[in-house]
Amino acid sequence: MLIGLSGCATVSVSNVDSREYVKQRRGDVLTTGTISQYTGVVLQILGLDQASCQREAAECAEILSTGLGLTSEQRLSAMAELWLHQALWYSRPRNKDVLAEVDAYLMSARYAYAYLFYSGVTPINRLFEDRQTQVRDYYNFATQQAATLLFSQQQRRWLQDSAVTLQTERWQLRSQLQHRRFREQALPAQLVPTNTLSFQGLRNQYRRDGLGAELVAVSAAPTQLNLQQGYSELPSPVVTAVLSFGGNTLAEVLSTDQVTLHVLDPLQQQQVTIAGADIPLAANFTAGYGLWLARSDFSRQAFWNLMGASDSLAQPHLFMLQPYDPNRKIIIMLHGIASSPEAWVNTANEVLGDEKLRANYQLWQLYYPTNLPLVLNLQAIRQRITQTLRQFDPEGLAPASEDIVIIGHSMGGLLARLLVSDSGEKLLYAVSEEHKLDLKRQQRFFQSFRDDFTFSALPGANRAIFIATPHLGTAVADYRLARWLAGLITLPVTVLERVAEAAELLNDPSSKSQARVPLRITSIENLSDSDSFIMAAARIPINAAVRYHSIIGVEQPSLPVAQHSDGVVPYLSAHLPEAQSEMVIRSGHSVQETSAAILEIRRILHQHLAELTR
Predict the structure, then answer these.
(1) Nearest by Cα to 76 from 111, 42, 104, 41
(2) Cβ(465)–Cβ(576) under 8 Å?
(3) 21, 60, 109, 166: least CB-packed within 10 angstroms?
(4) Rounded to 5°, angle at Cα 149 from 147 and 152
(5) Burial track 394-410 (b if 16+ CB lie within 10 A, e otherwise)
């Protein structure tokens, strides 16, 4: 009797750490490399061998589709995971078979797609289920891998023509390139998954959870600056790929061989509609911007740009971080001396990461030659902005052409101030008085240089943020090192010819008694607190329609106000008594990248939107 009883099954119990339980419950083919507990239970119910199903998902499909005791959701989610395991097996170097790998990813995506939208339970009713999150991840990962593999293949004509079909062993594939860049320009060389990119120098990566693969489109060759056009869109835009399968019922989706690869712009589209439901579209808003900066070589270019090297920037270039949108307000960012758009790396990223700001603004960054005299840069930048606006909005009627916000750091802040100011003839008369021009020479000077020294506020710009801006100049520009650097700067021949013309008019060679007043012709010299241009520009009124704000760095707040400085710009030079707001931050000169400054910029941008709706 006792011998007979010894063969009975017994149950025992042991304690499991709660954290280990959660880990086991949420582990799956993507996180641990092994099949999840959910799929393991399904296979055990049907008496299937887990190892065999992992090796040959197709052989288990028929049993899973007909076996008793399973819900539709159990069948579909298990098949999505098994096919994903099969695809990952094909991706290993010793098993490499690209076509089989693509087919398996598409099979996984189809079963996940069927589970999410055609299993009889809507996604909202599974909101708190771990399994739905896992299956969404299977779909997104399978879509990511299929899209990147398909874009890397040589035969890509089918991608550019939605009428052309790519035939694989199991599928007929079509593409829908709904991202405007791909409709108007050449296809990128590849799509890079954002989850494979890790950035240093970017504090945060901003993204949106949802359906689809988050990718960056990478061009075949580095994008060169089109100086004739004067502007360019981000050369590495973010995209989101989605796979859709033919059919309107579960049976049709599971039997179809028709699949479409959609490539979407997540900056323009927030959701997709599937089976009558609006589904959030996954997105990464940082990766494209970060990849562009990482590959731009701006840090090296910035110094040689200041020195006027032979291959340095000759004219301002405008980078549009998003495709032009006629309905989004424009933010224009101007960097400082010996700098580049890289100065705004975290500032711009935090604006892109703010959902409301991202939905209502588009970012433009000016990259300009920081060696040139301020007045020449001012006119060239103004022309670049107006030409770009005219290119996209010839009539000037789009909302984007109104309520423009200009943000400038350091020398960029000086240029920003001049862009929103009305000079009249004040600068012309200031130069005339400094050089004691007689009436005849004054008339000749006015006639030759009126276009250089007169300007009015940029149409449409009605808010400005000045950051660490030397409105009254800085003594640092007269330090020995600064003077030495100024002496090394090479200016373009055309600029030198223009300077020579001005020198001829301003200094009367026939007068032996009159001391010749030296012309400060480099940007470094222009920033001196004794420079006549700086002093005259400080007296030019900002346009009355413009609201402006100051953000100022101070290294040692305990000192008297008269001694406050960010190490480069004195507080009293950066301070504007009539500013709508002023924030003083304990910081060095690169205050624009501090968390406090970024929060203040975001606050002002939100305020700008709020005031527009009143």
Answers:
(1) 111
(2) no
(3) 21
(4) 105
(5) eeeebebbbbbbbbbbb
